[in-house]
């Protein structure tokens, strides 16, 4: 089912402009200008799942599984390599650096006799390193975070970002790790108020979301290095569906992962190559994050792409 | 549409037993025994939204709006009043004490010259108070936390908890703040793998979840003080629907709230009274949490209930 460009125009008219959209656009303008002056490569990372509201004043929604681990972890490794990162993420999903702030740390807060609060954590040295990195990134203005909740927010912000990156050619990379809904309910078909259970069983009719990767590769950012993700639960579909996506959208790379193995195994699929990345038991014990390996490989591919274009 | 007891039996057989269910039951046994020895009142607080999976190996699900603010905040105030709290909450929703651990705190972590990590927060004194409270609660074993994700997990754990509280009579309170799905897809109707968008638009048929408040009040915990919550977006329905619920289920209290005003206005509805709680602008500026007022009022109602039964 090929989606037509009219579908996309229709889709944008059927979803609301996100809150504080103009403010986000101004932030984008400033951020991109700053990076261009410093001649930095820029990566847009999308992260977390989009929601599809079932009601206008939303109590219920359809969500896609994603806590934002892939995106937030990858962002840290790209930042270490001096990429400027636009991190477009689901509100309250994991964020670079903040992701390390967990219950363990709260449990390890101690009050001293002088009234100070200190962190008595067994991984204190690791945490100290992260705090240092975080403060450097802030000072150097290497990271811009933008938030979405619904599918509509996400697509409006994605488009606005691409418009601002369009002139920067091959130095731009897109790392589309967000789990984007395939189905939605158009505004006109939506209940305004909370759907009442006293009306009995519920039938929902969801429309297909037009595949935005198509205009993105063709029109919005034709020179960028574009990476999409493919998550399946059925491993037999994984590589063939990744190849199909590359055939159809003509972008550069698909990172394929199976739901249950995603933290220790992914496959980088290009139109010519199929390159699995698998962490060993030892890697896992040492606490190696698979994103550190993915990012290293992706940067090599991006460098080659810049050289050959 | 009155739900029959056969619906409920059917529902339980159509949802899977939660992970680590036996472990949770053992924890419940220990916790309840400990509180009974110390003659403490026990409150079960449910918090956060339940999910309804659309696939067995779940990538997509329907979710109910709830970050767990009402439940986690209320839990802290009940703990301050020496209630033992069973906190049955959605995985990754807000938890008592941990809810104060936010980005602000990460931003305020500083490295000292001696290699320590200290918190340089403007609200340091407030945070110090919370850390002290938290450590006391831990030492006194006043708090048990249990997690759910899906509707099925939630209902199995709710039932198991009620079975263990049943013999404790009027000293038990239920504070059902979780946002529980009204609709679900039975296991037999569910797709095993991720639903493919290549099959075109999606039609979903959802069944009504049987109203568990009915057996809960009648059979599971007939002597307890039971509080349900009513959230609506349409304010005109709020009080009438709360009254209907009390008529139908014969429990003691409905806490009614409108989605957009829920942090500054709620109404306590009993079969005889309608008691609004509204925070003033001054209260809000001072940082008063509405849960502090709700908990005070609810404890009064519970005390009266114990005396008169």
TrEMBL record, chains A, B:
Its EC number is 6.3.2.51. One of its GO terms (biological process) is coenzyme A biosynthetic process. It comes from the Eukaryota. Pfam families: DFP. Residues 171-265 form the DNA/pantothenate metabolism flavoprotein C-terminal domain. It catalyses: (R)-4'-phosphopantothenate + L-cysteine + CTP = N-[(R)-4-phosphopantothenoyl]-L-cysteine + CMP + diphosphate + H(+); (R)-4'-phosphopantothenate + L-cysteine + ATP = N-[(R)-4-phosphopantothenoyl]-L-cysteine + AMP + diphosphate + H(+). One of its GO terms (molecular function) is phosphopantothenate--cysteine ligase activity. PANTHER family: CORNICHON-RELATED. Catalyzes the second step in the biosynthesis of coenzyme A from vitamin B5, where cysteine is conjugated to 4'-phosphopantothenate to form 4-phosphopantothenoylcysteine. Has a preference for ATP over CTP as a cosubstrate. Belongs to the PPC synthetase family. This is Phosphopantothenate--cysteine ligase.
């Amino acid at each position: 089912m090929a989606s037509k460009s009219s579908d996309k125009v229709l889709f944008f008219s059927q979803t609301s402009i996100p809150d504080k959209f103009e403010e986000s656009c101004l932030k984008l303008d400033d951020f991109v200008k700053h990076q261009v002056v410093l001649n930095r490569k820029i990566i847009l990372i999308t992260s977390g799942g989009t929601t599809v509201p079932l009601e206008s004043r939303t109590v219920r929604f359809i969500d896609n599984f994603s806590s934002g681990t892939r995106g937030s972890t990858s962002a840290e490794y790209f930042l270490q390599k001096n990429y400027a990162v636009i991190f477009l993420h689901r509100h309250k999903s994991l964020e670079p650096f903040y992701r390390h702030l967990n219950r363990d740390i709260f449990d390890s807060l101690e009050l001293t006799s002088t009234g100070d609060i200190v962190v008595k954590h067994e991984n204190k040295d690791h945490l100290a390193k992260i705090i240092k990195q975080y403060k450097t990134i802030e000072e150097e203005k290497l990271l811009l975070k933008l938030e979405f909740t619904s599918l509509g927010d996400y697509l409006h912000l994605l488009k606005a970002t691409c418009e601002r990156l369009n002139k920067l050619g091959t130095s731009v990379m897109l790392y589309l790790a967000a789990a984007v809904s395939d189905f939605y309910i158009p505004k006109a078909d939506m209940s305004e108020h909370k759907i009442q259970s006293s009306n009995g069983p519920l039938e929902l009719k969801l429309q297909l979301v037009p595949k935005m990767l198509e205009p993105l590769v063709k029109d919005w950012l034709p020179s960028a290095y574009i990476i999409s993700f493919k998550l399946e639960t059925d491993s037999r579909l994984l590589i063939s569906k990744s190849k199909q996506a590359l055939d159809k959208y003509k972008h550069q790379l698909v990172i394929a992962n199976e739901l249950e193995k995603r933290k220790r195994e992914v496959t980088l699929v290009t139109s010519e190559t199929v390159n699995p990345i698998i962490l060993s038991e030892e890697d896992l014990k040492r606490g190696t994050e698979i994103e550190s390996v993915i990012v290293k490989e992706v940067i090599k591919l991006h460098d080659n792409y810049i050289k050959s274009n």
